[in-house]
Design brief:
Tetracycline Repressor, domain 2; 10 helices; 0% strand; Arc Repressor Mutant, subunit A; mainly alpha; 206 residues
Length: 206
């Protein structure tokens, strides 16, 4: 049974839903209050305004991602511990990590709406632009590049350019995320994911 949301949590969730559908500028505090089911003035007992709610959405997403990563034993940042976790990685484990991460990003409502918000607000909000890079562009590539470099030093991966390896691994995953956002079926791409992980593993792992 899911935990019932507090009023503040409802405000964050309903705001994200409205922002992702209508854009930040297209939503009023009164509209958010109505979606939550509270009086217009009551919302100010929880947040000073839309910008504060906007920032709270980012904090909530970070908390959700960190919680997911911890539950799946996926390191949030690359360090020596990360290298040790992946040191004995095999194809099955790599596939499981990939499927679990994709499942979180494309099947759960909050991350899906969050991604839609970032794409829509990236040119208005420097915070949204930075978050988009952190979660979907520079962040994943940098993490994987550093990880692959560490695994090369340990003799696990072949000595190719780690940056190119990171692009090779991540680009098809982001492509699949975009296709799913446009309405494609997750099941339709399961075999594509498996084939990609298999090909990557065979090409780069010693």
């Amino acid at each position: 049974m899911e935990k019932q949301m507090t009023t503040k949590e409802k405000i964050i969730f309903e705001s994200l839903k409205l922002f992702s559908e209508k854009g930040y500028e297209g939503v009023s505090m009164r509209e958010i209050a109505s979606a939550v089911g509270i009086k217009g003035a009551s919302i100010y007992n929880h947040f000073k305004g839309k910008e504060e709610i906007f920032n709270a959405i980012f904090e909530e997403m970070k908390s959700r991602y960190d919680g997911f990563a911890t539950s799946m034993h996926i390191p949030v940042e690359q360090d020596d511990t990360t290298t040790e976790i992946y040191l004995n990685i095999d194809e099955e484990m790599l596939l499981k990590y990939t499927e679990n991460l994709l499942g979180f990003l494309v099947k759960e409502e909050f991350p899906v709406m969050f991604r839609k918000l970032l794409v829509g607000e990236q040119h208005r909000s420097p915070i949204a632009a930075e978050m988009l890079k952190q979660y979907y562009f520079d962040g994943p590539i940098l993490f994987q590049k550093q990880l692959f470099e560490s695994l090369q030093k340990k003799g696990v991966f072949k000595g190719y350019d780690a940056g190119i390896m990171a692009l090779h691994f991540y680009s098809p995953i982001y492509y699949i995320i975009c296709k799913l956002d446009l309405g494609a079926s997750y099941e339709e791409y399961l075999q594509t994911i498996k084939s990609h992980v298999h090909g990557f593993y065979m090409l780069y792992v010693k």
